[in-house]
UniProtKB/TrEMBL annotation:
Coiled coil: none annotated. Residues 7-21 have a biased composition (Basic and acidic residues). InterPro entries: DUF1684 (IPR012467). This is DUF1684 domain-containing protein. It comes from the Archaea. Residues 1-42 are annotated as: Disordered.
């Protein structure tokens, strides 16, 4: 990880803090915005930028994810990512909803920081790429970009919960944190 990347990450985090503090669509309730002094993050760490091998699922399996308000939303399991993190082999599933841009993937996950140092219901990553991923492609999963969903800040939002297939065994000390 270069100093330029770490600085860019810090700038993006500052922009997000400004959005949360001032924007009308911020998930921070209006009555709490004056006291909001920014989100908490782990320091940028190159260890948590991992190269992942892609397995594409040509006939994506529907996955029903529970949400924070008790509803269920349906996603398609379109890819599986295989990677090493902290010296251990791991996998995560990538999802999208029917009709979504094939270049956008949703990667919700839990890890050993969940409920301790990070939001109690898990965090999200989004992966953007050009077109469809193919079997054997390699992509970078950057856990430094992991974030808590809006429902972590307000009950007015409903958020999908990471399915058990996306529960990592180790602690991922990267991205947004709660303390």
């Amino acid at each position: 990880m270069t100093d330029d990347y770490a600085e860019e990450l810090r700038r993006n985090r500052a922009e997000k803090d400004d959005f949360f503090a001032e924007h009308p669509q911020s998930p921070i309730p209006p009555e709490e915005r004056d006291g909001f002094d920014g989100l908490s993050y782990f320091d940028p760490d190159p260890t948590y930028r991992v190269e992942a091998s892609v397995t594409r699922h040509d006939d994506p399996e529907p996955v029903e994810m529970e949400t924070t308000d008790g509803r269920v939303v349906r996603y398609l399991h379109v890819v599986t990512f295989e990677f090493d993190i902290d010296g251990e082999a791991a996998t995560l599933q990538g999802y999208r909803q029917a009709g979504d841009d094939p270049g956008q993937l949703f990667v919700p996950f839990r890890d050993k920081t969940t409920g301790q140092q990070t939001y109690k219901r898990g965090r999200y990553m989004e992966l953007e790429h050009d077109g469809e991923l193919a079997d054997g492609d390699t992509v970078t999963l950057d856990f430094n970009l992991a974030y808590a969903p809006f429902c972590a800040y307000s009950d007015t939002f409903s958020c999908p919960l990471p399915p058990e297939a996306n529960w990592l065994d180790g602690a991922v000390e990267a991205g947004e944190r709660t303390n």
